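Cross-check.
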Amino acid sequence: MSLSAKGRRKIVVRGQTYIWYVALDDDSPYLILNIFSDDKYLLLSCPLHSGTEYLISKGRVFQNKETDGLWNRYLLPFQLPDIITPECVERLIVWAVEGKDAVRISINDVPL
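Predicted model, tokenized:
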């Protein structure tokens, strides 16, 4: 089953196609940047303007390692801009795929 790309933006990073979009979260007051690979191995969500810069990995891989498939939160090592651009999305993807030593945090460490 594929994820819909209708009304969403495509970006190709290092030969892999990803879909990204920003949407209001159903469970919080935050806008969420969502990124997923077309093969669904990389699934990322990033709350915007939440006070703590972090990313949620929901896919099967993160930083070239297989994951447990649970929602794992990691501190971002850089600030996100106020306006999300393709360059920002590419930077997040490269960090999530090729980065190392991400700092994992618990849900208690981030605002809800």
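The radius of gyration is 13 Å. The mean pLDDT is 89. Passed to J.P. for a second look.
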